[in-house]
Amino acid sequence: MKLRFTAVAALATLAACADDATPTQEQRAEQLEERADAVEQAGDQRAERIDERTDARAEALNERADALEEGEVPVGQAAGAVSNMNARTTPAGVQSGRDNPAGALPPAATGTPPANAAGAGENG
Amino acid sequence: MPRVLAKTADAMPSQGRYKKVTMRLGATVMLAALSGLAVIPVRLLPSETRAAVGTGGDDAQVAGPAQVAIARSEPGSPQAVVAPAIQYLDPSLAPDGAIGRATGRSDAQSVLSHEETSVHNPIYASMLAGLRVYREVWSRLPQLQVPATAALHAGSSGPAVNVLRRRLGVQAADNTPFSVALEEKVRAFQRVHALPPTGVADGATIAALNRGSAHYEAIILANLERARWLPREMGDKFVLVNTAAARLIGYEHDAPALEMKVALGSSKRPTPALADKIETIVLDPSWYVPPHLVQSIIAPKVLEKGLAYLNENGFVVLSDWSDTAVEADPSSVDWRAVRDGRAYARVRQKPGPANPMGDTKFMFPNRLGIYLHDTPNHAVFAKEDRYVSNGCVRVEKAAELARFLVGEPMPADGSEMSREIVLKGPVPVITAHFTFWWDGHNPTFHKDVYGRDHPLIAKLELSRP
Question: Disordered: where is this region (chain A) (predicted)?
Fold first, then answer.
Protein backbone atom coordinates (compact mmCIF):
# COMPACT_ATOMS: atom_id res chain seq x y z
CA MET A 1 0.00 0.00 0.00
CA LYS A 2 1.21 3.45 -0.90
CA LEU A 3 0.48 5.02 2.47
CA ARG A 4 2.16 2.18 4.30
CA PHE A 5 5.27 2.65 2.16
CA THR A 6 5.24 6.33 2.92
CA ALA A 7 4.95 5.67 6.64
CA VAL A 8 7.81 3.19 6.60
CA ALA A 9 9.90 5.61 4.55
CA ALA A 10 9.18 8.30 7.09
CA LEU A 11 10.31 6.01 9.87
CA ALA A 12 13.49 5.15 7.97
CA THR A 13 14.17 8.82 7.45
CA LEU A 14 13.70 9.46 11.10
CA ALA A 15 16.12 6.64 11.92
CA ALA A 16 18.76 7.81 9.47
CA CYS A 17 18.72 11.53 10.10
CA ALA A 18 18.11 11.74 13.79
CA ASP A 19 20.52 10.72 16.43
CA ASP A 20 17.87 9.40 18.70
CA ALA A 21 14.15 9.49 18.15
CA THR A 22 12.44 11.61 20.72
CA PRO A 23 9.39 10.21 22.50
CA THR A 24 7.22 12.48 20.44
CA GLN A 25 8.71 11.21 17.21
CA GLU A 26 8.27 7.64 18.32
CA GLN A 27 4.68 8.26 19.17
CA ARG A 28 4.13 9.86 15.79
CA ALA A 29 5.72 6.94 14.02
CA GLU A 30 3.51 4.53 15.86
CA GLN A 31 0.46 6.49 14.90
CA LEU A 32 1.52 6.45 11.27
CA GLU A 33 2.10 2.72 11.45
CA GLU A 34 -1.37 2.14 12.93
CA ARG A 35 -2.96 4.29 10.34
CA ALA A 36 -1.17 2.46 7.56
CA ASP A 37 -2.39 -0.84 8.97
CA ALA A 38 -5.96 0.40 9.10
CA VAL A 39 -5.86 1.66 5.53
CA GLU A 40 -4.35 -1.57 4.34
CA GLN A 41 -6.99 -3.61 6.11
CA ALA A 42 -9.83 -1.53 4.68
CA GLY A 43 -8.35 -1.80 1.21
CA ASP A 44 -8.08 -5.55 1.51
CA GLN A 45 -11.66 -5.85 2.66
CA ARG A 46 -12.89 -3.72 -0.21
CA ALA A 47 -10.89 -5.70 -2.74
CA GLU A 48 -12.31 -8.90 -1.30
CA ARG A 49 -15.86 -7.62 -1.66
CA ILE A 50 -15.25 -6.57 -5.24
CA ASP A 51 -13.73 -9.96 -6.00
CA GLU A 52 -16.71 -11.75 -4.51
CA ARG A 53 -19.15 -9.59 -6.42
CA THR A 54 -17.39 -9.94 -9.74
CA ASP A 55 -17.01 -13.67 -9.25
CA ALA A 56 -20.72 -13.99 -8.57
CA ARG A 57 -21.52 -11.88 -11.58
CA ALA A 58 -19.22 -13.86 -13.81
CA GLU A 59 -20.66 -17.10 -12.50
CA ALA A 60 -24.20 -15.97 -13.14
CA LEU A 61 -23.39 -14.75 -16.62
CA ASN A 62 -21.74 -18.04 -17.39
CA GLU A 63 -24.78 -19.88 -16.10
CA ARG A 64 -26.95 -17.77 -18.32
CA ALA A 65 -24.67 -18.41 -21.28
CA ASP A 66 -24.99 -22.13 -20.58
CA ALA A 67 -28.74 -21.81 -20.42
CA LEU A 68 -28.81 -19.94 -23.71
CA GLU A 69 -26.63 -22.56 -25.33
CA GLU A 70 -28.87 -25.30 -24.04
CA GLY A 71 -31.95 -23.49 -25.26
CA GLU A 72 -33.48 -23.04 -21.82
CA VAL A 73 -33.93 -19.31 -22.32
CA PRO A 74 -35.59 -17.87 -25.44
CA VAL A 75 -33.13 -15.76 -27.36
CA GLY A 76 -35.72 -12.96 -27.59
CA GLN A 77 -35.40 -12.48 -23.85
CA ALA A 78 -31.68 -12.04 -23.98
CA ALA A 79 -30.21 -9.27 -21.93
CA GLY A 80 -29.73 -6.91 -24.84
CA ALA A 81 -33.34 -6.88 -25.91
CA VAL A 82 -34.65 -6.18 -22.43
CA SER A 83 -32.03 -3.57 -21.84
CA ASN A 84 -32.89 -1.66 -24.97
CA MET A 85 -36.55 -1.69 -24.16
CA ASN A 86 -36.04 -0.23 -20.77
CA ALA A 87 -33.60 2.37 -21.84
CA ARG A 88 -36.16 4.02 -24.04
CA THR A 89 -39.26 3.98 -21.97
CA THR A 90 -38.70 6.19 -19.01
CA PRO A 91 -39.34 9.87 -18.56
CA ALA A 92 -36.12 10.11 -16.65
CA GLY A 93 -34.21 8.01 -19.12
CA VAL A 94 -33.65 5.18 -16.69
CA GLN A 95 -31.63 2.33 -18.02
CA SER A 96 -32.42 -0.91 -16.37
CA GLY A 97 -33.09 -4.55 -16.90
CA ARG A 98 -29.44 -5.37 -17.34
CA ASP A 99 -28.55 -8.87 -16.68
CA ASN A 100 -27.88 -8.43 -13.03
CA PRO A 101 -27.63 -11.85 -11.43
CA ALA A 102 -29.15 -12.57 -8.09
CA GLY A 103 -26.91 -11.46 -5.30
CA ALA A 104 -25.16 -8.87 -7.44
CA LEU A 105 -27.99 -6.35 -7.52
CA PRO A 106 -27.45 -3.10 -5.65
CA PRO A 107 -29.80 -2.21 -2.81
CA ALA A 108 -32.73 0.05 -3.61
CA ALA A 109 -32.82 3.57 -2.27
CA THR A 110 -36.00 3.94 -0.22
CA GLY A 111 -35.93 7.63 0.56
CA THR A 112 -38.57 10.17 -0.40
CA PRO A 113 -39.08 10.42 -4.20
CA PRO A 114 -38.03 13.66 -5.87
CA ALA A 115 -40.77 16.11 -6.92
CA ASN A 116 -40.25 15.56 -10.62
CA ALA A 117 -41.44 13.29 -13.40
CA ALA A 118 -39.37 10.36 -12.17
CA GLY A 119 -40.68 10.74 -8.64
CA ALA A 120 -44.28 11.01 -9.82
CA GLY A 121 -44.23 7.88 -11.95
CA GLU A 122 -47.11 7.28 -14.33
CA ASN A 123 -50.50 7.17 -12.66
CA GLY A 124 -52.09 5.00 -15.29
CA MET B 1 -19.96 -19.09 -26.50
CA PRO B 2 -17.35 -16.84 -24.88
CA ARG B 3 -17.28 -16.97 -21.12
CA VAL B 4 -16.97 -14.15 -18.62
CA LEU B 5 -13.85 -14.31 -16.52
CA ALA B 6 -14.21 -11.18 -14.47
CA LYS B 7 -16.20 -8.05 -14.71
CA THR B 8 -16.82 -5.19 -12.38
CA ALA B 9 -20.06 -3.35 -11.89
CA ASP B 10 -20.66 -1.01 -14.79
CA ALA B 11 -21.66 2.57 -14.60
CA MET B 12 -24.80 3.09 -16.59
CA PRO B 13 -24.59 5.62 -19.37
CA SER B 14 -26.73 8.62 -18.79
CA GLN B 15 -29.83 8.83 -20.92
CA GLY B 16 -31.36 11.93 -22.35
CA ARG B 17 -33.20 13.87 -19.73
CA TYR B 18 -36.49 15.58 -20.01
CA LYS B 19 -36.37 18.91 -18.36
CA LYS B 20 -39.07 21.40 -17.75
CA VAL B 21 -38.58 24.98 -16.97
CA THR B 22 -41.10 26.29 -14.56
CA MET B 23 -42.12 29.85 -15.05
CA ARG B 24 -42.04 31.62 -11.79
CA LEU B 25 -44.31 34.30 -10.55
CA GLY B 26 -41.80 37.01 -11.16
CA ALA B 27 -41.43 36.10 -14.78
CA THR B 28 -45.14 36.18 -15.33
CA VAL B 29 -45.50 39.55 -13.73
CA MET B 30 -42.69 40.78 -15.94
CA LEU B 31 -44.47 39.45 -18.99
CA ALA B 32 -47.58 41.25 -17.96
CA ALA B 33 -45.66 44.44 -17.47
CA LEU B 34 -44.03 44.12 -20.88
CA SER B 35 -47.35 43.55 -22.55
CA GLY B 36 -48.75 46.74 -21.10
CA LEU B 37 -51.14 45.14 -18.68
CA ALA B 38 -51.84 46.46 -15.28
CA VAL B 39 -50.93 43.95 -12.62
CA ILE B 40 -53.53 44.88 -10.16
CA PRO B 41 -53.70 44.08 -6.49
CA VAL B 42 -55.75 40.96 -6.50
CA ARG B 43 -57.58 38.93 -3.98
CA LEU B 44 -57.34 35.35 -5.11
CA LEU B 45 -60.57 33.76 -4.15
CA PRO B 46 -60.39 31.04 -1.54
CA SER B 47 -60.14 27.59 -2.95
CA GLU B 48 -61.43 24.38 -1.59
CA THR B 49 -58.59 21.94 -1.31
CA ARG B 50 -59.06 18.58 -2.88
CA ALA B 51 -57.96 15.64 -0.84
CA ALA B 52 -57.25 13.64 -3.92
CA VAL B 53 -54.02 13.82 -5.85
CA GLY B 54 -55.69 15.29 -8.87
CA THR B 55 -55.08 18.98 -8.96
CA GLY B 56 -55.99 21.59 -11.42
CA GLY B 57 -59.70 21.34 -10.95
CA ASP B 58 -61.52 24.61 -10.94
CA ASP B 59 -61.54 24.53 -7.19
CA ALA B 60 -57.97 23.44 -6.78
CA GLN B 61 -54.93 25.46 -5.90
CA VAL B 62 -52.54 25.33 -8.79
CA ALA B 63 -48.92 26.16 -9.05
CA GLY B 64 -46.95 28.26 -11.45
CA PRO B 65 -48.35 30.91 -13.72
CA ALA B 66 -51.88 29.79 -13.05
CA GLN B 67 -51.65 31.38 -9.63
CA VAL B 68 -51.05 34.74 -11.14
CA ALA B 69 -54.23 36.62 -11.75
CA ILE B 70 -53.98 39.41 -14.25
CA ALA B 71 -56.73 41.59 -15.54
CA ARG B 72 -57.14 44.75 -17.49
CA SER B 73 -58.06 47.28 -14.91
CA GLU B 74 -57.23 50.64 -13.54
CA PRO B 75 -54.03 50.41 -11.53
CA GLY B 76 -54.53 50.59 -7.83
CA SER B 77 -58.07 49.38 -7.74
CA PRO B 78 -58.20 46.23 -5.65
CA GLN B 79 -60.36 43.68 -7.37
CA ALA B 80 -61.11 40.02 -7.03
CA VAL B 81 -59.96 37.96 -9.96
CA VAL B 82 -60.61 34.30 -10.52
CA ALA B 83 -57.30 32.58 -11.01
CA PRO B 84 -57.25 30.12 -13.90
CA ALA B 85 -57.52 26.57 -12.60
CA ILE B 86 -55.24 24.98 -15.13
CA GLN B 87 -51.63 24.04 -14.73
CA TYR B 88 -49.42 25.33 -17.51
CA LEU B 89 -46.80 22.62 -17.21
CA ASP B 90 -45.18 24.00 -20.33
CA PRO B 91 -44.86 27.71 -19.55
CA SER B 92 -44.87 28.64 -23.22
CA LEU B 93 -48.57 27.71 -23.24
CA ALA B 94 -49.57 30.17 -20.56
CA PRO B 95 -51.51 33.10 -21.99
CA ASP B 96 -49.47 36.23 -21.63
CA GLY B 97 -52.40 38.57 -21.44
CA ALA B 98 -55.56 38.87 -19.39
CA ILE B 99 -55.92 35.46 -17.85
CA GLY B 100 -58.42 35.62 -15.06
CA ARG B 101 -61.77 37.30 -15.39
CA ALA B 102 -62.64 39.84 -12.78
CA THR B 103 -65.60 38.79 -10.73
CA GLY B 104 -68.81 40.63 -11.27
CA ARG B 105 -72.42 40.32 -12.11
CA SER B 106 -71.80 39.39 -15.72
CA ASP B 107 -74.48 37.59 -17.66
CA ALA B 108 -74.80 35.89 -21.01
CA GLN B 109 -76.11 38.97 -22.79
CA SER B 110 -73.26 41.18 -21.66
CA VAL B 111 -70.70 38.52 -22.58
CA LEU B 112 -72.19 38.25 -26.07
CA SER B 113 -72.34 42.02 -26.41
CA HIS B 114 -68.73 42.49 -25.39
CA GLU B 115 -67.08 39.62 -27.16
CA GLU B 116 -63.45 39.51 -26.29
CA THR B 117 -61.44 39.84 -29.44
CA SER B 118 -58.24 39.23 -27.48
CA VAL B 119 -59.17 35.61 -26.91
CA HIS B 120 -58.08 33.67 -29.95
CA ASN B 121 -58.73 30.00 -29.74
CA PRO B 122 -61.23 27.84 -31.57
CA ILE B 123 -62.75 26.50 -28.37
CA TYR B 124 -63.71 29.95 -27.13
CA ALA B 125 -65.19 30.91 -30.49
CA SER B 126 -67.13 27.67 -30.54
CA MET B 127 -68.44 28.25 -27.02
CA LEU B 128 -69.70 31.70 -27.95
CA ALA B 129 -71.55 30.25 -30.93
CA GLY B 130 -73.02 27.59 -28.68
CA LEU B 131 -74.19 30.21 -26.19
CA ARG B 132 -75.97 32.11 -28.94
CA VAL B 133 -77.72 28.99 -30.19
CA TYR B 134 -78.69 27.90 -26.70
CA ARG B 135 -80.29 31.25 -26.01
CA GLU B 136 -82.15 31.19 -29.31
CA VAL B 137 -83.48 27.68 -28.89
CA TRP B 138 -83.94 27.14 -25.16
CA SER B 139 -83.70 30.42 -23.26
CA ARG B 140 -86.47 32.11 -25.24
CA LEU B 141 -88.99 29.51 -24.07
CA PRO B 142 -91.26 30.44 -21.15
CA GLN B 143 -89.45 29.54 -17.97
CA LEU B 144 -92.46 27.96 -16.30
CA GLN B 145 -92.27 25.63 -13.33
CA VAL B 146 -93.59 22.21 -14.26
CA PRO B 147 -95.42 20.54 -11.36
CA ALA B 148 -93.35 17.71 -9.96
CA THR B 149 -95.79 14.90 -10.45
CA ALA B 150 -95.38 11.36 -11.64
CA ALA B 151 -93.46 10.86 -14.87
CA LEU B 152 -95.22 12.31 -17.89
CA HIS B 153 -95.14 10.30 -21.08
CA ALA B 154 -96.95 9.67 -24.33
CA GLY B 155 -100.65 9.49 -23.62
CA SER B 156 -100.48 11.36 -20.29
CA SER B 157 -102.78 14.32 -19.87
CA GLY B 158 -103.74 16.87 -17.27
CA PRO B 159 -102.52 20.23 -15.96
CA ALA B 160 -98.89 19.12 -15.66
CA VAL B 161 -98.83 18.09 -19.32
CA ASN B 162 -100.32 21.47 -20.25
CA VAL B 163 -97.53 23.29 -18.39
CA LEU B 164 -94.89 20.99 -19.82
CA ARG B 165 -96.16 21.68 -23.33
CA ARG B 166 -96.00 25.46 -22.80
CA ARG B 167 -92.60 25.19 -21.11
CA LEU B 168 -91.19 23.45 -24.20
CA GLY B 169 -92.98 25.65 -26.72
CA VAL B 170 -95.14 22.95 -28.26
CA GLN B 171 -98.35 24.37 -29.65
CA ALA B 172 -101.56 22.54 -28.79
CA ALA B 173 -104.82 23.14 -27.01
CA ASP B 174 -104.99 22.58 -23.28
CA ASN B 175 -105.91 19.09 -22.12
CA THR B 176 -104.49 17.61 -25.29
CA PRO B 177 -102.75 14.36 -24.34
CA PHE B 178 -98.94 14.07 -24.33
CA SER B 179 -98.30 13.90 -28.09
CA VAL B 180 -95.54 12.54 -30.28
CA ALA B 181 -94.43 16.12 -30.96
CA LEU B 182 -94.12 16.76 -27.22
CA GLU B 183 -92.25 13.50 -26.77
CA GLU B 184 -89.74 14.58 -29.42
CA LYS B 185 -89.31 17.95 -27.76
CA VAL B 186 -88.71 16.29 -24.39
CA ARG B 187 -86.16 14.03 -26.05
CA ALA B 188 -84.41 17.00 -27.65
CA PHE B 189 -84.27 18.76 -24.27
CA GLN B 190 -82.82 15.65 -22.69
CA ARG B 191 -80.14 15.27 -25.35
CA VAL B 192 -78.95 18.82 -24.79
CA HIS B 193 -79.07 18.69 -21.00
CA ALA B 194 -77.11 15.49 -20.28
CA LEU B 195 -80.17 13.35 -19.64
CA PRO B 196 -81.03 9.96 -21.13
CA PRO B 197 -83.11 10.72 -24.27
CA THR B 198 -86.16 8.70 -23.29
CA GLY B 199 -88.88 11.14 -24.29
CA VAL B 200 -90.40 10.65 -20.86
CA ALA B 201 -90.55 13.68 -18.59
CA ASP B 202 -89.36 11.94 -15.45
CA GLY B 203 -88.25 13.53 -12.21
CA ALA B 204 -84.73 14.36 -13.42
CA THR B 205 -86.09 15.95 -16.60
CA ILE B 206 -88.66 18.04 -14.78
CA ALA B 207 -85.98 19.13 -12.29
CA ALA B 208 -83.75 20.21 -15.18
CA LEU B 209 -86.63 22.09 -16.80
CA ASN B 210 -87.39 23.82 -13.53
CA ARG B 211 -83.79 24.91 -13.01
CA GLY B 212 -84.41 27.18 -15.97
CA SER B 213 -82.19 28.49 -18.72
CA ALA B 214 -80.42 30.96 -16.41
CA HIS B 215 -78.91 28.02 -14.57
CA TYR B 216 -77.61 26.57 -17.82
CA GLU B 217 -76.40 29.89 -19.16
CA ALA B 218 -74.32 30.28 -16.03
CA ILE B 219 -72.75 26.92 -16.77
CA ILE B 220 -72.00 28.05 -20.32
CA LEU B 221 -70.37 31.20 -18.98
CA ALA B 222 -68.22 29.13 -16.63
CA ASN B 223 -67.13 27.07 -19.61
CA LEU B 224 -66.39 30.21 -21.58
CA GLU B 225 -64.14 31.20 -18.71
CA ARG B 226 -62.32 27.88 -18.99
CA ALA B 227 -61.91 28.48 -22.71
CA ARG B 228 -60.32 31.84 -21.96
CA TRP B 229 -57.61 30.04 -19.99
CA LEU B 230 -56.47 28.07 -23.01
CA PRO B 231 -53.23 28.97 -24.76
CA ARG B 232 -53.58 31.54 -27.51
CA GLU B 233 -51.11 29.93 -29.84
CA MET B 234 -51.36 26.19 -30.11
CA GLY B 235 -49.77 25.70 -33.49
CA ASP B 236 -51.02 23.66 -36.41
CA LYS B 237 -51.99 20.73 -34.24
CA PHE B 238 -53.12 20.28 -30.70
CA VAL B 239 -54.91 17.68 -28.64
CA LEU B 240 -57.83 18.53 -26.38
CA VAL B 241 -59.03 16.09 -23.76
CA ASN B 242 -62.42 17.11 -22.46
CA THR B 243 -62.65 15.48 -19.06
CA ALA B 244 -66.38 16.22 -18.76
CA ALA B 245 -67.22 14.50 -22.05
CA ALA B 246 -64.58 11.78 -21.66
CA ARG B 247 -63.54 12.44 -25.24
CA LEU B 248 -60.37 13.48 -27.04
CA ILE B 249 -60.29 15.74 -30.07
CA GLY B 250 -57.25 16.25 -32.25
CA TYR B 251 -57.31 19.68 -33.88
CA GLU B 252 -55.51 20.49 -37.08
CA HIS B 253 -55.54 24.10 -38.26
CA ASP B 254 -58.13 24.86 -35.57
CA ALA B 255 -60.60 22.26 -36.88
CA PRO B 256 -61.36 18.83 -35.40
CA ALA B 257 -59.48 16.16 -37.34
CA LEU B 258 -59.62 13.23 -34.95
CA GLU B 259 -62.00 12.23 -32.19
CA MET B 260 -62.17 9.31 -29.81
CA LYS B 261 -63.33 8.20 -26.41
CA VAL B 262 -61.04 8.32 -23.41
CA ALA B 263 -61.12 6.88 -19.91
CA LEU B 264 -60.19 9.29 -17.15
CA GLY B 265 -59.41 9.65 -13.48
CA SER B 266 -62.03 8.57 -11.00
CA SER B 267 -63.70 11.12 -8.76
CA LYS B 268 -61.14 10.17 -6.10
CA ARG B 269 -58.25 10.80 -8.46
CA PRO B 270 -59.63 13.23 -11.03
CA THR B 271 -57.65 14.04 -14.14
CA PRO B 272 -56.27 17.53 -13.56
CA ALA B 273 -56.64 20.44 -15.94
CA LEU B 274 -53.26 20.98 -17.55
CA ALA B 275 -51.47 22.30 -20.59
CA ASP B 276 -48.27 20.69 -21.79
CA LYS B 277 -46.66 19.44 -24.98
CA ILE B 278 -46.38 15.84 -26.14
CA GLU B 279 -42.75 15.25 -26.96
CA THR B 280 -42.39 11.56 -27.65
CA ILE B 281 -44.41 8.44 -28.36
CA VAL B 282 -43.24 5.19 -26.82
CA LEU B 283 -44.33 1.90 -28.36
CA ASP B 284 -44.42 -1.22 -26.19
CA PRO B 285 -43.71 0.88 -23.12
CA SER B 286 -42.78 0.06 -19.58
CA TRP B 287 -44.86 1.40 -16.72
CA TYR B 288 -43.24 3.40 -13.94
CA VAL B 289 -45.53 2.79 -11.00
CA PRO B 290 -46.25 5.94 -8.98
CA PRO B 291 -45.27 5.78 -5.30
CA HIS B 292 -48.85 5.84 -4.05
CA LEU B 293 -49.68 2.70 -6.04
CA VAL B 294 -46.50 0.98 -4.91
CA GLN B 295 -47.68 1.66 -1.38
CA SER B 296 -51.32 0.72 -1.81
CA ILE B 297 -51.09 -2.19 -4.26
CA ILE B 298 -47.63 -3.63 -4.74
CA ALA B 299 -46.24 -3.57 -1.21
CA PRO B 300 -49.29 -5.37 0.27
CA LYS B 301 -49.05 -7.98 -2.48
CA VAL B 302 -45.35 -8.54 -1.82
CA LEU B 303 -46.07 -8.92 1.89
CA GLU B 304 -48.84 -11.37 1.11
CA LYS B 305 -47.23 -13.43 -1.64
CA GLY B 306 -43.53 -12.81 -1.24
CA LEU B 307 -40.98 -11.36 -3.63
CA ALA B 308 -42.03 -13.85 -6.29
CA TYR B 309 -45.10 -11.63 -6.86
CA LEU B 310 -42.83 -9.03 -8.44
CA ASN B 311 -41.26 -11.34 -10.97
CA GLU B 312 -44.52 -13.09 -11.76
CA ASN B 313 -46.08 -9.78 -12.71
CA GLY B 314 -43.13 -8.28 -14.52
CA PHE B 315 -42.23 -5.78 -11.83
CA VAL B 316 -38.64 -4.83 -11.07
CA VAL B 317 -37.36 -2.60 -8.31
CA LEU B 318 -35.02 0.19 -9.37
CA SER B 319 -32.03 1.39 -7.42
CA ASP B 320 -33.06 5.04 -7.19
CA TRP B 321 -34.99 7.87 -8.83
CA SER B 322 -32.24 9.07 -11.13
CA ASP B 323 -31.92 8.55 -14.84
CA THR B 324 -29.04 6.19 -14.19
CA ALA B 325 -31.04 3.87 -11.95
CA VAL B 326 -30.49 0.17 -12.41
CA GLU B 327 -32.38 -2.88 -11.37
CA ALA B 328 -32.04 -3.32 -7.62
CA ASP B 329 -32.35 -6.11 -5.13
CA PRO B 330 -36.02 -6.25 -4.07
CA SER B 331 -35.04 -7.95 -0.82
CA SER B 332 -33.24 -4.77 0.18
CA VAL B 333 -36.61 -3.02 0.47
CA ASP B 334 -38.51 -2.97 3.75
CA TRP B 335 -41.90 -3.66 2.15
CA ARG B 336 -43.74 -3.24 5.40
CA ALA B 337 -42.32 0.27 5.68
CA VAL B 338 -43.33 0.95 2.08
CA ARG B 339 -46.86 -0.24 2.77
CA ASP B 340 -47.00 1.96 5.85
CA GLY B 341 -45.68 5.01 3.99
CA ARG B 342 -42.41 5.11 5.93
CA ALA B 343 -40.27 4.22 2.91
CA TYR B 344 -40.54 4.28 -0.86
CA ALA B 345 -39.51 1.99 -3.67
CA ARG B 346 -39.27 2.80 -7.34
CA VAL B 347 -40.94 0.04 -9.33
CA ARG B 348 -41.19 -0.51 -13.06
CA GLN B 349 -43.37 -3.00 -14.89
CA LYS B 350 -41.92 -4.49 -18.04
CA PRO B 351 -43.84 -4.25 -21.33
CA GLY B 352 -46.41 -6.96 -21.74
CA PRO B 353 -50.10 -7.77 -21.95
CA ALA B 354 -50.72 -6.85 -18.31
CA ASN B 355 -48.97 -3.51 -18.58
CA PRO B 356 -51.60 -0.78 -18.08
CA MET B 357 -49.82 1.46 -20.59
CA GLY B 358 -50.94 -0.92 -23.33
CA ASP B 359 -49.08 -0.67 -26.63
CA THR B 360 -48.38 3.04 -26.63
CA LYS B 361 -47.82 5.94 -24.32
CA PHE B 362 -47.64 9.61 -25.21
CA MET B 363 -45.05 11.36 -23.13
CA PHE B 364 -44.99 14.86 -21.74
CA PRO B 365 -42.94 14.24 -18.61
CA ASN B 366 -44.47 16.07 -15.70
CA ARG B 367 -44.48 16.13 -11.94
CA LEU B 368 -48.15 15.15 -11.81
CA GLY B 369 -47.53 11.74 -13.36
CA ILE B 370 -50.29 12.33 -15.90
CA TYR B 371 -49.95 10.96 -19.43
CA LEU B 372 -51.98 9.74 -22.38
CA HIS B 373 -51.65 6.06 -23.08
CA ASP B 374 -53.25 2.96 -24.54
CA THR B 375 -54.85 0.36 -22.28
CA PRO B 376 -55.12 -3.43 -22.38
CA ASN B 377 -58.74 -3.06 -21.21
CA HIS B 378 -60.61 -1.72 -24.22
CA ALA B 379 -63.93 -2.91 -22.82
CA VAL B 380 -64.02 0.30 -20.82
CA PHE B 381 -64.74 2.27 -23.98
CA ALA B 382 -68.06 0.50 -24.42
CA LYS B 383 -69.25 2.01 -21.14
CA GLU B 384 -70.81 5.39 -20.51
CA ASP B 385 -69.00 5.76 -17.20
CA ARG B 386 -65.32 5.83 -18.07
CA TYR B 387 -63.95 7.46 -14.94
CA VAL B 388 -61.79 4.59 -13.83
CA SER B 389 -58.13 5.62 -13.98
CA ASN B 390 -55.72 7.05 -11.46
CA GLY B 391 -55.67 10.34 -13.33
CA CYS B 392 -54.05 9.36 -16.61
CA VAL B 393 -55.93 9.53 -19.89
CA ARG B 394 -56.51 6.15 -21.50
CA VAL B 395 -57.16 6.58 -25.21
CA GLU B 396 -59.45 4.46 -27.35
CA LYS B 397 -57.42 4.59 -30.57
CA ALA B 398 -53.77 4.93 -29.66
CA ALA B 399 -52.50 4.04 -33.12
CA GLU B 400 -54.67 6.73 -34.74
CA LEU B 401 -53.55 9.30 -32.22
CA ALA B 402 -49.92 8.38 -32.87
CA ARG B 403 -50.48 8.72 -36.60
CA PHE B 404 -52.14 12.10 -36.07
CA LEU B 405 -49.22 13.34 -34.00
CA VAL B 406 -46.50 12.00 -36.26
CA GLY B 407 -48.27 13.04 -39.43
CA GLU B 408 -47.65 9.79 -41.23
CA PRO B 409 -48.26 6.07 -40.71
CA MET B 410 -46.29 4.57 -37.89
CA PRO B 411 -43.17 2.63 -38.85
CA ALA B 412 -43.69 -1.10 -39.20
CA ASP B 413 -43.24 -3.03 -36.01
CA GLY B 414 -40.51 -5.44 -36.91
CA SER B 415 -38.93 -5.96 -33.56
CA GLU B 416 -39.83 -6.93 -30.05
CA MET B 417 -38.07 -3.97 -28.58
CA SER B 418 -39.61 -0.86 -27.23
CA ARG B 419 -39.31 2.07 -29.57
CA GLU B 420 -39.43 5.76 -28.94
CA ILE B 421 -40.57 8.21 -31.57
CA VAL B 422 -39.51 11.78 -31.02
CA LEU B 423 -41.99 14.20 -32.56
CA LYS B 424 -40.49 16.67 -34.99
CA GLY B 425 -42.34 19.38 -33.15
CA PRO B 426 -43.92 18.95 -29.70
CA VAL B 427 -47.72 19.00 -29.90
CA PRO B 428 -49.73 20.88 -27.25
CA VAL B 429 -52.07 18.78 -25.18
CA ILE B 430 -54.78 20.33 -23.04
CA THR B 431 -56.95 18.60 -20.50
CA ALA B 432 -59.93 20.77 -19.62
CA HIS B 433 -63.31 20.25 -18.02
CA PHE B 434 -65.86 21.53 -20.52
CA THR B 435 -69.30 20.66 -19.21
CA PHE B 436 -70.79 22.54 -22.16
CA TRP B 437 -69.84 21.88 -25.75
CA TRP B 438 -70.88 23.09 -29.16
CA ASP B 439 -69.97 20.81 -32.05
CA GLY B 440 -71.27 23.15 -34.72
CA HIS B 441 -74.69 21.53 -34.75
CA ASN B 442 -75.94 20.94 -31.23
CA PRO B 443 -75.24 22.52 -27.88
CA THR B 444 -74.63 19.82 -25.29
CA PHE B 445 -74.12 19.79 -21.55
CA HIS B 446 -72.10 17.07 -19.90
CA LYS B 447 -72.44 15.69 -16.44
CA ASP B 448 -70.11 17.51 -14.08
CA VAL B 449 -68.42 14.38 -12.77
CA TYR B 450 -65.68 16.27 -10.96
CA GLY B 451 -68.03 18.85 -9.44
CA ARG B 452 -66.14 21.82 -10.80
CA ASP B 453 -68.98 23.94 -12.17
CA HIS B 454 -70.62 25.16 -9.01
CA PRO B 455 -67.42 26.44 -7.33
CA LEU B 456 -66.39 28.28 -10.50
CA ILE B 457 -69.83 29.83 -10.98
CA ALA B 458 -69.75 30.98 -7.38
CA LYS B 459 -66.29 32.49 -7.79
CA LEU B 460 -67.28 34.30 -10.95
CA GLU B 461 -70.34 35.67 -9.16
CA LEU B 462 -72.37 35.17 -12.29
CA SER B 463 -75.70 36.82 -12.25
CA ARG B 464 -78.87 34.86 -12.69
CA PRO B 465 -81.71 36.96 -13.97
Answer: 19-124
